[in-house]
Amino acid sequence: MNATATQSGETQARTASKPGNWSLQFLGATGTVTGSKYLLRAGDSKVLVDCGLFQGFKQLRLRNWAPLSFKPATLPAVVLSHAYLDHSGYVPLLVRNGFVGKIHCTEATYELCRILLPDSGRLQEEEAEYANRRGFSRHKPALPLYTEEDAKRSLTHFAPVEFDREIELGGLRTHVPIRAEVAVIENFSAHADYAEILDWLKGFEQAPRRTFITHGEPAAADALRHRVEESLGWSCRVPDYLESASLE
Ligand SMILES: [Zn+2]
Asked: Domain spanning 2-246: which superfamily?
């Protein structure tokens, strides 16, 4: 589970955009751990942070077929935090639906996406083919969300970035130093639990004005919200699907 802290004293965002016109919309990972997509808007500019696939229950997977809250052709850039499909697996569909901008991530994330995304497309095709063969889909014919070919085409939009290099994102002129450390761990997965998240949050010199908790099952997200509010006194919210928040 991630705690998304914005406008903290720790990150000291320096922005050229007029203050007061920043907003954040939650297009996934609300009340679930999948489908991470956060649309950051500043005036006319926008950037999508993560572009993940909804996975798991059918109700969630159906959201992959719903239109987005913006036209992909109007989006200049995507930033991927990491390659897992719940953070990157929607990229082929975004591109198929008209996205022509750049997808920024680390070189390692790109290398993994080169394997994961075509593989995901192939799986979607196999599932559709299986549904057609068995005749259990309401859709005749059942179609894949995207194909292996869509996924391969989407890879041409990747523009990996080296560590420590500053880039301009779709006209968003802001400087956000991220005071994090890259460490090697022995585990395959590295999600922090609430105690580690609280430890990290305690290091903030100044409470963020807004804190959003995403990427968790509803009960777990609410429990973390409660703990952050109790132990740090921060104003904390678990956003709803498609909720928009002004970052004034
Ligand atoms: Zn995830």
From this structure: Ribonuclease Z/Hydroxyacylglutathione hydrolase-like (3.60.15.10)
